[in-house]
Amino acid sequence: MASTTGTAALPSTAALVARLIFAGVFAMAAIFKFLNMGGTADYITAAGFPMGLVLAWAAAILEVILVLCFLSGAYFSEAAIVAAVYVVFLGFAFHGPSHWSANQAEFGFFVDHFTFLAGLLFAACYGPGGFLALKRRLF
User: Which of 42, 59, 62, 138 lies in the 20 to 30 Å Cα band around 34?
Assistant: First the structure.
């Protein structure tokens, strides 16, 4: 007779690993911004946005908040939705169709944002899992 104990923990373990991956990606993005805020601001300005430094700081702060939500599990679904919108915005703003003719690799970067979006939407629907999750919600 097969035991189901190992398979019962799989969804919570997978959710925890996914949370760590989401947190790691946004932590790296925030760290890179904090290490070179001026360069990030220049990149944002070069993409056509005003107030590059303000937007760079706002992005870094948002990313830190997302990291805290993904690590703790608090407001997890809400954070995943915010992250999903943010990721789609970044895809269009920095790697969208207007960038493809100059560099075909930009199309690959653009598509990568949508695979990340898929994971975030799945996470938003199914929550933080059962391990190490505060499970606080707004709604």
Answer: 138
d(CA 65, CA 78): 12
pTM of the model as a whole: 0.87
Q: What Cα–Cα distance (Å) separates residue 63 from each residue in 77, 86, 101, 105?
A: 15, 10, 30, 25
Q: Answer whether residue 52 is part of any domain.
A: yes
Q: How far is CA 139 from the centre of its chain?
A: 21
Name the residue range of residue 63's domain: 12-126
- Per-residue model confidence as pLDDT tens digits over 60-85: 999 999 999 999 999 999 999 999 99
